[in-house]
Specification:
The complex is a heterodimer of chains A (248) and B (244). By secondary structure, chain A is mainly α. Chain A has one domain. Helix content of chain A is 48%, strand content 2%. In chain A, strands 1-2 form a two-stranded antiparallel ribbon. In chain A, strand 1 and strand 2 form a beta hairpin. The longest helix of chain A is centred in the middle third of the chain and has 19 residues. Helix content of chain B is 57%, strand content 5%. Chain B folds into 2 domains: 192 residues, Alpha Horseshoe (Serine Threonine Protein Phosphatase 5, Tetratricopeptide repeat); 29 residues. In chain B, strand 1 and strand 2 form a beta hairpin. By secondary structure, chain B is mostly helical. In chain B, strands 1-2 form a two-stranded antiparallel sheet. Chain B is elongated, with a radius of gyration of 22 Å. Classes of the chains: A mainly alpha (248), B mainly alpha (244). Chains A and B meet through helix 3, helix 10, helix 11 and helix 12 of A and helix 1, helix 2, helix 3 and helix 4 of B.
């Protein structure tokens, strides 16, 4: 099998480096593209599968995921809070244009917070997924609730300050399709609509069965009609259900 | 070779799927069986937690789904408790409501909560496979949930006299008959619970008192006579042909 493969040469269109997402390096990207291009016709589903295994590995390498893993593995509460403060301070410094740590190879502020990672996620999702509720809450309040900072607050009857309900409020940002980043790079993938696409932090809090967290999110206008329609939440994939899905 | 084989298997069963919890937060809560969160979401909807743009979008989507599944009723949100009713009746792209998901994961407490909050209509909602929550329970072999729904939510108590109780069960979803008045029976994919149990050959129901009693009753009333009549007719025909 390997002998045959070595004889083949993948004919790839030239690589536009601007299309490569921040979490992927050029040589690695080229390697994956060659692997996919060598697959024969009719193996589109296998190609998608291959990309997903790569994505899962790449996710572990992203900056925010590594910081959060350090946080979950921290031996004591103080250590944990120290790492969390460090992470948040770095983000804030980046936003304000200050360089806190010159030798750090992390991507810029937008790259960390608002550009989707390998599985289509944002740090917001990662924090709640890993059970770091306090970090997640801080991230939402300081970076994702844009209305909150714009001074759009008003007082309700009990004197509580509320935010204006907006369907595009940051807490409702869903996972995007994990294949979006690959679509311009790999031609023969099978597009099944993404693995976790449509999932919001509200879905995560519900599956983790945390009523207090759900309450907190609902107070910040989490959308209760958002649909998680990725492949992960479906019992099976067949051509019929996909075509039906795209029409609805 | 091995890659080819696994590829064809993947077309039948999706390996990525782990959490088949429906699509909406409400059906997620029903699947994991947390009544507190169900209640919280429903109250939030009642208090105006669904913004206008969301509502328009979700209603459009629901109408499309209902049209594609061949449902006849339209959604009305204006009545009292309309938002809660909307939330309970929401169907995902495979036609499943929160009640379907609660049945799938054996969540009796959630079934009870949904039935107490505008759930009567969802009891007759068909998903894309033509299954109501009751026939879904039959298909999956969830005997306890099946009886729980029949006993607590489909039985009408006529009278109680001391320790004696007279109750009625509507057989529309259970038995094999068809009427033109019922929207369920008019549906192309409709299969009653009895048909589902027999076609899937669920062992769980083999010694079930209710199902056996229903079959016995049908056998005694008309099936025995019909069977004998057809049997004798064919046997006599064959005999005639043989003797000629």
């Amino acid at each position: 099998m390997s002998f045959k493969r070595s004889n083949k040469v993948a004919h790839l269109p030239p690589l536009d480096e601007e299309l490569i997402p921040y979490w992927l390096q050029v040589p690695h990207c080229q390697e994956i593209r060659e692997q996919c291009a060598l697959l024969s016709a009719g193996k589109e589903q296998y190609c998608t599968r291959l990309l997903r295994t790569h994505n899962a590995k790449l996710q572990l390498g992203t900056y925010s995921w590594q910081m959060m893993m350090q946080m979950t593995e921290a031996p004591s509460k103080e250590d944990r809070e120290k790492i969390m403060d460090d992470f948040l301070r770095q983000l804030k410094d980046k936003r304000d244009g200050r360089r806190h740590d010159a030798n750090h190879a992390a991507p810029g502020f937008d790259g960390i917070l608002y550009k989707c990672g390998p599985v289509g996620d944002l740090p917001l999702h990662q924090a709640f997924l890993l059970g770091l509720d306090d970090l997640g809450k801080l991230l939402v309040e300081s970076f994702y609730m844009r209305e909150y900072h714009d001074g759009n607050q008003f007082q309700d009857k009990q004197g509580r300050s509320m935010f204006l309900p907006k369907p595009d409020s940051g807490i409702n940002t869903p996972y995007v399709s994990d294949l979006d980043a690959w679509k311009p790079l790999v031609s023969n993938l099978f597009d099944d609509g993404g693995l976790y696409s449509g999932e919001t932090v509200l879905h995560i809090a519900i599956v983790q069965q945390k009523p207090k967290l759900v309450r907190w999110m609902l107070d910040r206008y989490a959308c209760i009609t958002s649909r998680a329609n990725g492949v992960f939440f479906k019992p099976y994939t067949d051509q019929a259900s996909i075509s039906q899905n795209s029409s609805i | 070779m091995s890659a080819q084989g696994s590829n064809s298997i993947r077309a039948l069963t999706n390996e990525d799927s782990v959490c088949d919890y429906g699509e909406f937060p409400f059906s997620f809560a029903a699947s994991v069986g947390n009544v507190e969160i169900l209640e919280m979401l429903a109250r939030h909807a009642e208090r105006g937690g669904i913004a206008k743009e969301e509502l328009i979008e979700v209603l459009q989507m629901q109408r499309k789904i209902r049209a594609s599944l061949g449902a006849e009723q339209d959604i009305v949100v204006k009545e009292k408790g309309g938002f809660m009713r909307l939330l309970v009746g929401l169907q995902d792209s495979r036609g499943n409501t929160a009640l379907h998901m609660a049945v799938r994961y054996n969540q009796k407490a959630c079934i009870d909560w949904i039935m107490a909050h505008y759930g009567q209509e969802t009891l007759h909602t068909l998903n894309a496979d033509g299954m109501t929550p009751l026939t879904l329970a039959a298909q999956l072999g969830h005997v306890e949930v099946f009886h729980h729904i029949i006993r607590n939510h489909m039985t009408q108590i006529v009278y109680t006299f001391g320790s004696t109780q007279m109750s009625m069960v509507n057989l529309a979803q259970l038995d094999t008959y068809r009427t033109t008045r019922s929207a369920l029976h008019r549906h192309k994919k409709w299969k009653s619970a009895l048909e589902v149990i027999i076609s899937t050959e669920r062992e769980e129901f083999a010694n079930d008192e209710f199902v056996v009693a229903l079959l016995q009753e049908k056998w005694d009333k008309f099936a025995k006579r019909n069977y004998l009549r057809y049997y004798l007719w064919t046997v006599s025909n064959v005999l005639c042909i043989v003797t000629l």
